[in-house]
Design a protein that fits this description.
4 strands, alpha+beta, globular, 4-stranded antiparallel sheet
């Protein structure tokens, strides 16, 4: 996959590029360790999740991307876990929801 711009990522996730959305994205980038390394993989995960009614969104309450598995699909859950392991991405489960915050790549010990 070619270089992905931040603007292209927003569009791929279904957002309109506005000043406010770009400011929100800047905060998310600051909070996402290894963002440049994983942003193209965020798009590939988004595409893989679509058939299962799941998607990646911008959290309205925290400055992170959020993976939402609203259909509670077990296949989508497995895709999310495999993606996290493959790209060494830390996910935090959102309490009481089928959702995860993408916190960034794991730091090697």
């Amino acid at each position: 996959m070619a270089h992905v711009t931040d603007e292209a990522l927003l569009v791929q996730l279904g957002y309109t590029q506005t000043n406010g959305m770009m400011e929100t994205l800047k905060e998310i980038i600051k909070n996402t360790y290894g963002y440049e390394s994983i942003k193209k993989h965020i798009i590939s995960l988004q595409e893989s999740l679509k058939p299962y009614g799941s998607f990646i969104a911008i959290s309205s309450s925290h400055d992170f991307f959020k993976i939402k598995n609203e259909s509670k699909s077990e296949v989508a859950h497995e895709l999310i876990q495999k993606w996290s392991e493959k790209y060494k991405v830390n996910l935090t489960k959102v309490s009481g929801k089928e959702a995860y915050y993408i916190e960034g790549q794991r730091v090697a010990a």
